Amino acid sequence: MVVSDAAGAVEFLRSAFRATGDAETNRPAEIRIGDSLVMVSQAGEREVFPAFLYIYVDDVEAVYRRALAAGAVKVEAPWDTPYGDRRAMVRDVFGNVYQIATRNAPT
Predict the structure, then answer these.
(1) For residue 21, how many C-alpha atoms fall within 13 Å in the half-sphere facing its CB?
(2) Among residues 23, 20, 12, which one has the least CA distance to residue 68?
(3) CATH of the domain at 24
(4) Residues of the domain holding 73
(5) Model confidence over 16-54: pLDDT tens digits?
(6) Which terminal residue of the chain, N or C, has fewer Cβ atoms less than 10 Å from its own Cβ?
(7) What is the DSSP string of the chain?
(8) How many domains in the chain?
């Protein structure tokens, strides 16, 4: 993702998703969310380019609440999808959209 405030975006990811990693000066930050690596770049050479990420977590409701507390806005409250995921969706202040999901046990 390319954002207007890389340090702010990294802090959001750390707060909402318990991501690890730090903002870097003059290079993209490598941020881990679970076992995934997300690159966060400061706009400048490249224009702002938001991301749309689908992130599996252990507890949709807890992560959804943390994301809202960290400044995200609700796009979609948690619900059970027909394909078996419990999913919510939020947008951060940088325009990035996150679908947050937990796979439901099969019935």
Answers:
(1) 25
(2) 12
(3) 3.10.180.10
(4) 2-103
(5) 999 999 998 889 999 999 999 999 999 998 999 999 999
(6) C
(7) -EES-HHHHHHHHHHHH--B----SSS-EEEEETTEEEEEEESSSS--B--EEEEE-S-HHHHHHHHHHTT-EEEEEEEE-TTSEEEEEEE-TTS-EEEEEEEPPP-
(8) 1
